[in-house]
Amino acid sequence: MPAWRILLTDGLAETGKSILNEKNISFDDQNGIEPGALLDCIENYDALIVRGRTKVTKEVLTKASNLKVVGRCGVGVDNIDLAAAKEKGVTVVNAPVATTVAVAEHAMALMLAMVREITKADAGLKTGVWYKKEIKGTELNGKTLGVIGFGHIGSTVGKYARAFGMEVIAYDLIASDDQIKDHGGEPVSLDELFSRADVITLHVPLTDSTRHMIDEQAITKMKDGVRIISAARGGVINEDALLQALESGKVASAALDVFEKEPPKDSLLVKHPKLIATPHIGGETKEAQRRAAVDIVNEVLAALDGEPLRWKIV
């Protein structure tokens, strides 16, 4: 086996490191490495494993003279310049299924917290306020959930929602109508989803076609009092448009785990009383991170050894 060298820049669960140690693969754990330092050392490595923090830019890839594969320990690869990687001949792989349950459960947690105003009730009690009469929640049972992006995560959210008695309609850029039906959703156009859904949850990657797909024009097509959730990627929602819709009441409430700028400093949207915000923790469960570490290490090693890949992006 060649003497591969692997760089970890955003940490990795011990389950992944154990595999590397068992196979006597050399790796350096430089969790939190700054962009300048990454540029200085990247030429020494055959593989790079990142999460969402590290930006694998064209400049990084240009300097990475020995780099053969970039592994994203998670789903989204918008922090990796895929065009530059393809041009350089660098394989990009991810771990798209490891965090499915964690993100789907988080989306449901946001949904429940939103419709029952749990954060307001909790904050009130902690400050001595008894919001017994002021809070009147909304039940999920009998409501229509619109799922935008009906892949691993979106279809799992749909499964959970059906257990709550919700009708699930879905729009997906890739999945066929039959595939959506097979996973328990009713396939609809995006405009029909907007017009029918009581709650909308987003589970799409950030691409040119999905950037700001929820904007002022899209929101005007939605029901008055719609509720919106995103545990996908920041940038899929136009945050200014969402803020205006919360102010006007067109959107009754929203819950976001992701933001265009992370962390979102001094954001009026984050501070809005009708928004529940969490700091991009959808995939942050112990179980999910253990699975993701195993999946990405095995995939990166397969790429280095020229073996078949399960989750090749480019």
Shape: globular
Query: Whole-Å distance between the termini?
Result: 24 Å
Spatially, the strands of the biggest sheet line up as: 8-7-6-9-10-11-12
Specify the number of helices: 13
What is the CATH C level class of the largest domain, in words?
A: Alpha Beta
Structural class: alpha/beta
CATH architecture of the largest domain: 3-Layer(aba) Sandwich
Residue-averaged pLDDT, rounded? 97
Rounded radius of gyration (Å): 21 Å
Describe how the helices and strands are arranged.
Layout: E1 5-8, H1 14-22, E2 26-29, H2 35-41, E3 47-50, H3 58-63, E4 69-72, H4 82-88, E5 91-94, H5 100-115, H6 118-126, E6 144-148, H7 152-163, E7 167-171, H8 177-182, E8 186-187, H9 190-196, E9 199-202, H10 216-220, E10 226-230, H11 239-248, E11 251-256, H12 268-271, E12 275-277, H13 286-304
Parallel strand pairs: 1-2, 1-3, 3-4, 4-5, 6-7, 6-9, 7-8, 9-10, 10-11, 11-12
Give a summary of the structure in a few sentences.
It is built from 13 helices and 12 strands. With 314 residues, it is α/β, with parallel strands linked by helices. It has 2 domains: 113 residues, 3-Layer(aba) Sandwich (Rossmann fold); 178 residues, NAD(P)-binding Rossmann-like Domain (Rossmann fold), CATH 3.40.50.720.
